[in-house]
Amino acid sequence: MDLAYLWFWIVGFLFVGYFVLDGFDFGVGMSLPFLGKDDISRRQIINTIGPVWDLNETWVIVAGACLFAAFPEWYATLFSGFYLPLLVILLALIARGVSFEYRHQRDSLRWKRNFDRMIIVGSALPAFLWGVAVANIVQGVPIDADFEFTGTVLTLLNPYGLLGGLTTLLLFFVHGVYFVALKTDGKVHADARRLAVKAGVLAVAVAAVFVAWTVFAHFSLPVLALGALAAVLLISSVVANLRDREGWAFGFGAATIMTAVLMLWFALFPNVMPSSTDPAFNLTIENASSTDYTLTIMSWAALIFLPLVLAYQGWTYWVFRKRVTRDRIEKAAQLAH
User: Fold this and answer.
1) Distance CA 105, CA 309 (A)
2) How many distinct structural domains can be found in the chain?
3) Residue 284: what are its φ and ψ, rounded to 5°?
4) CB atoms within 10 A of CB 119
5) Could you list the residue ranges that cross the membrane (predicted)?
6) HSE of 131, CA atoms in CB hemisphere, 13 A
7) Nearest 5 degrees, angle CA 35-CA 168-CA 170?
């Protein structure tokens, strides 16, 4: 296989990992106003991702670095055309990260509530804007003969892009609520299961429209098969949650996001950024990639370091695999006082 095509799929794999892992982080953050009835329950929810949220976030850094090195033309056009949405995502991620670290630094209820709001907004904005961005990349945006984006921010706020954003927002929300149910006990666990039912039904309805639109607009057998599989997996996650099988529900939710991203990657192939101005101006895998020498060095680096990163992340999840119980949070709060 040509190295440029290999790296197209490696970049896709990195974004799959990011959306699956940071996706449930976003969902956990968005669930705070629905499940956090008091400070103890909010701490219980936040602590489910406390040991892993920053590790999950590094996937987007690696994906961005690989995109820059493997496909510099794609990177340049994407970041110039999508500059404002990507900046908003970056600021939201910073605000969310700061909130996780500073929320517990004072006992003031107002202090904690302000940082809770930053967590909620810092989770919801990226969850929505990533969907808008990816949907627009797949659909195509105005690009001229010099591979420069000629639209505006309003160009990205089209029906398909907005539907993509709403779809990722709901999928990540449901994914996060499944994770809360998996990792907590007591009232938070029970409330998360009930919330997942309502949100899951809404996610199924919205995602079905988005998948159908994508299949009709970019029809191919892989896109059709992956779209159908994503629908089955999402419905399976809702059924598993109804049967009190939160582990299966979370697993099906993760598989749904993985399959949906792969569907979009197949819809994009062999382009990396189609032009809505003229198909002759499409950025493709071949005209957007780096030299073979650069891709060869990157391939050896990925072969050596990627298994180590995956092993370390797997070990981290294994160490912090136990539930975050309300009793443990209450005892910690008593000791702090």
Assistant:
1) 31
2) 1
3) -115, 170
4) 25
5) 6-32, 77-98, 119-140, 160-183, 195-213, 219-240, 247-268, 297-320
6) 28
7) 35
Domain hosting 281: range is: 3-330
Instruction: Indicate the average pLDDT of the chain.
Output: 93
Each residue of 129-154: pLDDT tens digit? 999 999 999 999 999 998 999 988 89
- Residues in contact with 190: Cβ distance below 8 Å, sequence separation at least 6, in sequence order: none
Tokens standing for 203? 């996610």
Backbone angles phi, psi at 295, to 5 degrees: -65, -30
Q: Identify whether 103 is part of a domain.
A: yes
The burial class, CB within 10 Å (0-12 / 13-18 / 19+), for 304 is: exposed
In a domain, 335, yes or no: no
Contact yes or no for 212/223 (Cβ under 8 A): no
Give the span between the Cα atoms of 202 and 170, in whole angstroms: 8
Residue 337 belongs to a domain: no
Task: Indicate the length of the chain as a whole number.
Answer: 337
**Which burial class, exposed, middle or buried, applies to 72 when counting CB atoms under 10 A from its CB (0-12, 13-18, 19+)?**
middle
Judge whether 322 lies within some domain: yes
CB 165 within 8 A of CB 132: yes
Cβ pair 128, 121 in contact under 8 A:
no
0.85 exceeded by the pTM? yes
Q: Domain holding 126: CATH number?
A: 1.20.1630.10
> Tokens standing for 251?
């697993």
Distance CA 137, CA 252 (A): 26
Q: Rounded mean pLDDT of 266-280?
A: 93
In sequence order, what E strands does the chain have?
271-273, 283-284
pLDDT in tens, 23-67: 999 999 999 999 988 888 999 999 999 889 988 999 999 999 999
**DSSP characters over 174-211:** HHHHHHHHHHB-HHHHHHHHHHHHHHHHHHHHHHHHHH
What amino acid is encoded at 144 in this protein?
A: D
